[in-house]
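Quality-control log, excerpt.
Job 1 of 2 completed; input and output follow.
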Amino acid sequence: MRHLSAPPAAGPGPQQKSDATLVSTGRRLWPYIWPRDRFDLKLRIFLAFAALVVAKLVTIAVPYSFKWATDSLNSGSAHIEDLPALLAGPIALTIVYGVLRTAMAGFTQARDALFAAVAMNAVRRLANDVFVHMHELSLRYHLERKTGALTRVLERGRTAIETMVRMITLTGLPTLLEFALILAVFFVQYDWRYALATVLMIVAYMAFTTIATNWRIGIRRSMNESDNDANTKAIDSLLNYETVKYFNAEGREAARYDKAMARYEKNSVASYTSLAVLNAGQAAIFTVGLTAVMIMCVSGIREGRNTIGDFVLINAMMIQLYQPLNFMGMFYREVRQAVIDIEAMFHILEQKAEIADRPGAKPLVVSDGVVRFENVFFSYDPQREILKGVDFEVPAGKTVAIVGPSGAGKSTLSRLIFRFYEPQQGRVTIDGQDISSVTQESLRRAIGIVPQDTVLFNDSIGYNIRYGRWDASMDEIRDAAAMAQIDRFIGIVPDGYDAQVGERGLKLSGGEKQRVALARTILKAPPILVLDEATSALDSFTEREIQDALERVSRGRTSLVIAHRLSTVVNADEIIVLDQGRIVERGRHEQLLEQGGVYAGMWNRQREVHDAEEALRRAAEEEGKSVRVNIEA
């Protein structure tokens, strides 16, 4: 007998998933709205809620004052001598109407003012949590994502948190309370048909709003994606301004940006069109409900059960109901749209850091500063191994240089020692302590680096130097600048240490940026120093100046030098040659030249290039002298 398997159970539909996300997001936001350690904010919430209740009670009283004034006018005598008495009641009731509306506005504004601190505190705390978590995530995470898109997530998320918190507490709850009060008035003072008609109108209104808003959610997602894409392309292009100019690529960049903006335009138009459909449908549903209850009231007036004042009261209450009902439509739209943006922030918070401190990790204790790589295997991608059994030691106070062709894995070593990544096999130790078992903060405090690509903060020179040790005094900053040979430049530049370096330090030359990076590392005063091709992008003259400063700084420190130009490592205590992830040679400069291997071949090629450059320079100088002699003659 064959057994038929049961069909798979249907999973939750889009609406169920959406509602679950809304509930989940609200639950995760609650601790930020109701902070356990802030009594002052809790008090503000209670006071805001009290102001809310009073404001809504006054709101319900306003149409009654209108009704009483209308009935008073309608029931007056027709005799002219009774006119003052006829008008006294309506005038007094009209004044009451004005006072009630003023009180309603006052309590509403008091509620908003009281709750503002609660909302903005939630925004600040959650945004800060996401910002901190972004820095805790691994280098791999940031390399695989575009910074522009991440900043847009943070920016839109901040706005969305404020929107959601304020909408729920300042729109959602007040509106529900007002609905309940109006329905109670209709049911008690009139009859159940008024309440039923109003309930049916509200249900139809909210059902239509829900369906239309869910339709618009997909449009909003597409609009956000196209906005991210356009913003990322703009930031990427502007950060590479010089490269764009080098290759006359302005037109191509403009076309890429315009293509992204065209998608954003299309999605934006769809968003506005769908909003028009939503607003029109809401207005039609409300108008039907308003017309129904007004017809009931007219019928009641003819039968003598209602007065003209009742007609005015019901009309005023329904019109007054339209505003919060319309807010509910906006509330649902804005909250659902905010959930999309907040969901992206929470998605970042859910990302696990690839590199994390182990439970019970202790601070690194540096006594001598001996660095050792023990049989290290590493790959960024399982399909391509970068390091293959690398094993070497940097003795205390000595300088070990790592050289080799491009792609040999040299810079990977610096990333491993900073524990941006962890090896798949083997380990890295400092004074015998496995760096994977100590805290990252203590590890990175013990190591200083001067990278090849120095990126500075868009702030002052002094700020960028002080970044090495934030509690340093101004005298210590000046001393570090002097050791890095940047003090003379700072002395002649306008504003001195307060001079702005520009985006990524673009106002400074390559040598000036390297000196600033060196100064902040000197200020940090680490026992272990990593120089990652720190002079490879500089001209020969600037390289010699920076190299002199680097040698002074590294003296007495354990130094790992990753170099492309071999002329910068001839004085190293040991030179290690990497090729295709393996150590193929090691020794001092003279020993490696005598071996005639990979290092000697690299040295000879670089000397040939250097000699050719020197010959061209001398020829240019001789030609210049000849031209000057001819001109003088």
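Job 2 of 2 completed; input and output follow.
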Amino acid sequence: MHLLRLLRHVFAALTLILATALSAAPEPVNSVITAVAVYADRAIVTRTAAAELTKGEHELVFENLPAALMDESLQVRTEETKGVARATILDVNARTTFVPATPAAGVKTLEDRLKELSQVRRKLDDRAGVLAQKREYLLKIQTATTTVPNVEKETSSARTTVEDWLKLLKFSEDNLTALSTEQQQLDLDRLKNDEEQQAARNQLNQLLNGGGPGPLPGGAITRPSPQNRDRNVKTVTVRVSVSTPGALSLALAYGVRGASWSPAYDAKLRGDAAQPTVSLTYFGTVRQTTGEDWKNVQLTLSTARPSLGGGAPELRAWVLDERPTPMMVAAAAPARRGGAGAGGGRGGRGGAAPGGAAVQSFALLGNEGADGTLAKDAVADFATASVDTGATSASFKIPDAATVLSDNSPQKVAIAVADLPAKLQYQSTPRLLEAVFLGAAVVNHSDYPLLAGPMNTFLDDNFIATSSLKTTMPEEKFDLSLGADEGISIKRRLVNRFTEKTGLSGSGNRVTYTIELTVANLKKARQHVVFKELLPVSRNEKIEVKLIEPAEREVGTLAKPGKEVTREEDGKLVWRVDVEPGKDKARKFTLKFSVDYPADFQITGLE
């Protein structure tokens, strides 16, 4: 009886151990990428998976993840849905797995295409060799048949008649013409084959090297190093303990490098309205070579920079000491070797640990609570992103699902469209160029911080130029340059340059300049024009510059503006004037100044 009870206990223990072992067996799960948050130098990818689980411990395995996955960035959470299993996440780990190398479908297709084109090229080259042999054979026939024979030995019956010569000539002409025609077509076919092979090589380089630098000389193909060509992937295992069986939904988030986004803008000025406005379209250009395609994902663009760490770096002491002599270095060498393991090397610099940066990145991905809105004057030409502005960064949640392939090709997504009021003014520097340029001062009344990036500028749907926009926060001003406008003209003319002696004995020199500037408005309404001129600046006490016209009392300063002309730093004189329409209402302005210096003084800079 005692033995039977003991056997029952042993059997129960074995059953429990077997059940535990079976429940803990790795279980691969099917996962899909559902959301991606992109930063300036990386991305946080979120995969979701669901599995039916029994009570006990389970190891859920996410396979074939990118080899560049950042282990310290791993985060797992359960999705809250009805009727799911109750489970506790015990631990998460990642390991590198090596699998047989299999080229991507696009790479295999291009490699097969190159093989086909190579075979075609070989056939063309073989045909070219046959044509060359035919041509050589015909030339030999011509040489043999046109050699002058020994007349004494040639019998009358064997003599070549004129008719025979004509037939030989016709034969040679027809065959050489046919060979030349075929050779011309063959050359065209070989040229076309070369172009097709080069195009295929360029495409293959792009796939193998994530975009690559473009076509390579000589049609070479650059392949990644052998270690990068190895099919190594990451496998992430999530161990969970299930207390109530049922369906469990998991979200796995991980950081990966090889992804980035950058801003770009289209600025369209409508200048014919009563109140000029700029329609600003804010784009995000996303690229990635992470090794996996993002298809129909919820895309978020973040301005955060996790690579900088979580805090400001710590300053290290700036130590001054005696320069060591060779004898001092030799004596200190053993001590230095012994202390090499002490912390305080380069790794001791301040800043957040890599794990801290990764946690910050994942936290930003979850900022989905507040949906930002456009300014009151926004235009919904594009689906616009909601903005979530945090203490240190902003995140733009793209409303529509996006697809970004892992081939480094740019994918442009719209972030926002806003109509912003603009204040127009015309600007000119006639001393350098007699042209007037249209500019617009715009205030960012939207909720979106505008990061520095390239900008295409349009005036009434006409492309003007490509410029750049500096980083502009909400309610901050930025300027648009809209190109030269022929409707406003400005002319600069040197009226006089007069040199004279000064002083009772002619001990000084004076040069007086008179410059005339004319501004004409050929438009239908009054326009505001700003133009600049230079007044010489003296760097020597023996040189005196005196402004004659306009008078000093008519000139304002940066501290006391309000005058039509203002003197700024480095001798710049700025006119801000209103000009009525019509040639007969053109305005003229005179700049007159003198430069005095000793007669025996060598002066530089005078024109």
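Post-run check on job 2. Residues 16-23, 211-218, 224-228, 335-381 have pLDDT under 50 and may be disordered.
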